[in-house]
Input
Amino acid sequence: MRQQGASRGNVPFFRFLDPTSARVVSVYRNNGTRGSIGLTYGGAHFSTSGSLPMSTWGLIELHVITSGSSSTVEVRLNGTLIYSTTSASLGTAGVSTVQLGNDTAAQAFSIVADTVNVQYGASPTPSPPVSTSPPTISGTAQADQALTASPGSWSGTQPITYAYSWQRCNASGASCSAISGATSPTYGVTSADVGSTLRVAVTATNSAGFATATSNATAVVQSGSTQGGLVALWHMDETSGTVMKDSINSHDGALHSVQLGLPGSSGTAYGFTGSSYVSVPSAGDLNPGSANVTITIRLKSTSVPATPDWDLIRKGYYTTPGGEYKTEYQPSGQASCGFKGSAGYAELIAGPALSNGSWHTVQCVKTSSAIKLVVDGQRFSKAATVGSIANTDTVPIGARPGSEFYKGSLDEASIQVG
Output
């Protein structure tokens, strides 16, 4: 759709006409801001669940079986069924003509059409999807950047729908494993991906079956171009002892009633029972000051907290001189980010519930003008000017010591400043 006509006007994409040129079914777009797709048959208008914004390509399909008062009408948008009935009253004369566009100047509009396919009579034997060129990934393999997947090219009976699964691989592009929750065409690269490569598996499905094709791996993921780098990275791979080792610095933590050696998202993980936590001593480089800060942690839980929440990782409190940063797990099952600095406080609760027993990656980010929450690659943000954060408090993981104890598994925590 390039240009729409008068508001509230209906601009037909196409119509089916019977042998007398009488209208059987019309599929149209409502003008105005909504751009909803509707259809007309039997002298009545019907709404669908689909809409098509201006200047956007869309694949619109209309399937009709004329059988008196038991006629079938189905409309799909980009492979998704947006309207279906088997009780339309369309007569028995059938369809003999397909009309593209409108036939009245009173409803002017501008539209670009491509690849019109008309099938009549018995449907051919459906064929399952077959990949003719693999999926591709565009974007920069760098922390805090977004990658976008294209499904590649597929043959087979239309419509074909696509499902996405992002995978994290080693630096050679092997030993790949699915990233929990990363199932949209766009993936937000996190600091947890640094040093790895990424690829996407696309599963194509139609009425005859499904098939999966996989992209090539990206380049090795680099740290963000505007970030100073990781200042602490805890793999949580210890299977004995009372110390959590920092793999890149000296920010080792003391373990308190933590279960060791549980299956992790990578290697092993820690278990937190409702009275467990880890305490990391305060250090100057764990304070971001006025710089950006990124806190990343992976979690797996089948529980949700009672009011107020469970702490995942924090430094400082709201009343602490110098402010705080924190990542929490809410009673809704959602993750949250909170930052208190010299210019004020901001908090963001967003994303899906995480209490399904799968691994999820949560990342909290503060910049000079916003706070961001990234959950399994899905990005949420809120404009905020927090200011500088610097305090002398420890960094507890898995609890606010004495309260708000997390229940579940945690793995691969890190803090990045700059």
In short: The radius of gyration is 27 Å.
